[in-house]
Amino acid sequence: MFIDGLECSNFDREIFQELRAGGLGCVTVTCGFWEDGLESMDALVAWRALVRANDDLVRVATTAAEIEAIHAGGRTALLLGFQNSSFLAGRIGYVELFADLGVRVAQLTYNIQNDVGASCYDLEDAGLTRYGREVVGEMNRVGMVIDLSHVGERTSIEAVEHSAAPVAITHANPASLVPHARNKSDALLKALAARGGVLGVSGYRNISGEYAASADAWAEMVARTVDLIGLDHVGIGSDLGRKVVDADLRWMRQGRWTRTTQYGAGSAANPGKQPPLEWFPDTTAFPGLAEALTRRGFDPTEVAAVMGGNWLRFYRQVLPAHPPTSEE
Amino acid sequence: MFIDGLECSNFDREIFQELRAGGLGCVTVTCGFWEDGLESMDALVAWRALVRANDDLVRVATTAAEIEAIHAGGRTALLLGFQNSSFLAGRIGYVELFADLGVRVAQLTYNIQNDVGASCYDLEDAGLTRYGREVVGEMNRVGMVIDLSHVGERTSIEAVEHSAAPVAITHANPASLVPHARNKSDALLKALAARGGVLGVSGYRNISGEYAASADAWAEMVARTVDLIGLDHVGIGSDLGRKVVDADLRWMRQGRWTRTTQYGAGSAANPGKQPPLEWFPDTTAFPGLAEALTRRGFDPTEVAAVMGGNWLRFYRQVLPAHPPTSEE
Which among A326, A140, A316 is positioned nearest to B325, based on CA atoms? Predict the structure, then answer.
């Protein structure tokens, strides 16, 4: 089963069809970046409507068994995720409520420090807060994936250490291969791997450098990442932003926290939306990734692990065993 | 099984123990009156914590089967209810989200007109709004009890007619027996009964007049109500407010909608919290209600119907057959 650890596309029927064409068994979608409690509920309402309208193509999964069943039924399983903890509105109790509503992945911070910890772009990182430790514990309890992709180094290390369950970096690359604030230190990646976590390697141009040049270059980055942290801990997190437009990019990068232009993973010299990768314009190109891994020397078992098997094992460990009920 | 169709007590362990002592199988509790979306989520968080801390006495039920199982296990089942539709924050999609979080009863309005319809205290009642019709339909779909206790006459009639499922008046009395804005016309009660609904007869002093004088007087009101709408449609809705203090009463009556003193079901001449009924100080007195009904001439089958059987049949019809899951 092919699994994409994170996408931030503006999903619609066409993009769902691309998931099917690419043979995707499971994708984590982004339900929000800066949205508050009510706005996040609104996002869930909108996602339910979108999924119901495309029930022949996709379904929401809340357990690993559901991912497998949805895949076996010829559909793509969607994991509902937020790229920030703002949906919690500062309430520890909302971790459980949103889990009951199907949310399965949450990044602790997006691009600026919040009540949980620091982002990868903050100049100072004071680590996981007292509330942050509670959030991590509560996410462990309800079976929500802790995502550290945009999270600061110290906060991330402390989250790895504090978490009782393996944690994820759904979409980033090793900084030792591509130096960038969004990429991750070897120390963090090794700590994550030592606790059973998974890194979703991304081809996103802004954080992939020369490895974005071709599927083979990307496969080389995967191979070097496997050398660094071991085969079991490497998956894919494309960070694909199909149909993301400038207004979306502004919302992602600036949210409501600044009046100044922000470039996110870009820069003043490189301010705009990145053009699609020629070799990965959308998820229909997923089989090509497997072929590139094969050309790079991965055997079929290894290819299967990177293309989805590692994520599925991780989800089996981290997601709850049963669908949510209000009475537990 | 004894069932109380509505209480607004400030529940704590002592009050849960009273439920057990009274032999209550199920009680609908009030999670909020004027609270907005986030405040209502906060209320659910608080209710979950309270119920978990008293798991030996009470559990939340989301289906009729759960009510019966919780009762069989020696606990009291709680149905989570709101006495207003403000928790929806104007969102049709929140009916389903809050249902997924366990909410099973909602009054369409509290004491002032809202986006759904008019309350029983409004001088004009323009009926169920377009949004209100959608809310009723959505409550039908997810299996949420539509409560008309504080709802205006025309809005109520239209809700009865528009609803595909039987509806409830969880706590009120026939206005033909006790004239009061909070009590219900014969026309409304008969329409409700004709569609399979249930009225919870209350002993609350402000809306019970002479029938609040004793358990036997209350039983007489029950008998006259049965004469009016039939045995199958009469249950109990005590409206009990154990440990409700003046600040609670102010919140119920004034919410945030007025700077002036409001008396709710009371009056300027009768402004305060009503003293407890000597014959019904708390739910430990429930067996006494059954005895009073027997003295009034109800046979054991009829007593059982009024004391809980009618509510249970209603819940079997209206509540969903299965506990909520995020994936349906």
Answer: A326
Question: Which residue among B89, B93, B326 sits closest to A100, beta carbon to beta carbon?
Answer: B326
Give the pLDDT confidence of A245-301 residue by residue, as tens digits: 999 999 999 999 998 999 999 999 999 888 999 999 999 999 999 999 999 999 999
- Write out the DSSP string of A203-220: --HHHHGGGGS-HHHHHH
Instruction: Give B 49-78 residues with CB within 8 A of chain A.
Output: 49, 59-62, 66
Using alpha carbons only, what angle is made at residue A221 by residues A218 and A227, rounded to the nearest 5 degrees? 145
**Interchain contact A304–B (C-beta under 8 A):** no
Summarised one tens digit per residue, pLDDT across range A191-203 is 999 999 999 999 9
Q: In this complex, is the C-beta atom of A96 within 8 Å of any C-beta atom belonging to chain B?
A: yes
By CB atoms closer than 10 A (0-12, 13-18, 19+), residue A14 is exposed
Segment (H or E) for B98: helix B93-100
Q: What type of residue sits at position B242?
A: R
Q: Looking at the DSSP assignment, which residues form a beta bridge with residue A2?
A: A24
Looking at residue A323, its pLDDT comes to 82
Residue range B270-310, pLDDT digits in tens: 998 889 999 999 999 999 999 999 999 999 999 999 999 99
Short-list B161, B213, B215, B205, CA closest to B183 = B205
Which of B101, B327, B328 to mutate to test binding with chain A, by most A CBs within 10 Å of its CB? B327
d(CA A228, CA A234): 10
Beta bridge partners of A223: none
User: What sign for the dihedral angle of Cα A106, B328, A57, A10?
Assistant: negative
Burial class of residue B260, CB neighbours in 10 A (0-12, 13-18, 19+): exposed
Angstrom distance (rounded) from CA A53 to CA A50: 5
Cα A219 from Cα A301, distance rounded (Å): 15
Kind and range of the H or E element at A82?
strand A76-82
Count Cβ atoms within 10 A of the Cβ of residue A179 and give its class: 0-12 exposed, 13-18 middle, 19 or more buried. exposed
CA distances from A277 to A18, A75, A216, A218 (A): 15, 25, 13, 11
Total-model pTM = 0.91
CA distance A112 to A178: 22
Query: How close is the nearest chain B Cα to the Cα of A178, in Å?
Result: 39
Q: CA A134, CA A223: separation in Å to the nearest integer?
A: 36
Q: Residue type at B326? A: S
List CB contacts (< 8 A) between A89 and chain B: 38
Q: Which residues of A fall within a CB distance of 8 Å from B66?
A: 327
Residue of A nearest to B88 (CA): A38
Both tokens of A144, joined, read 């929500």
DSSP A68: H
pLDDT score of B178: 98
Cα-based angle B19, B21, B22 (whole degrees, multiple of 5):
65
pLDDT in tens, B142-179: 999 999 999 999 999 999 999 999 999 999 999 999 99
Sign, CA dihedral B55-B57-B59-B65, equals positive
Going by C-beta distance under 8 Å and a sequence separation of 6 or more, which residues neighbour residue A103? Answer: A31, A44, A80, A81, A82, A87, A144
Give me the residue from A44, A59, A97 closest to B41, CB to CB.
Answer: A97
Task: Look at residues A132, A118, A34, A79 and name the one whose alpha carbon lies nearest to residue A318.
Answer: A79
A44 token code pair: 């869930």
Spell out the domains of chain B, with CATH numbers in brackets: 2-318 (3.20.20.140)
Q: Would you call A130 exposed, middle or buried from its count of C-beta atoms within 10 A (0-12, 13-18, 19+)?
A: exposed
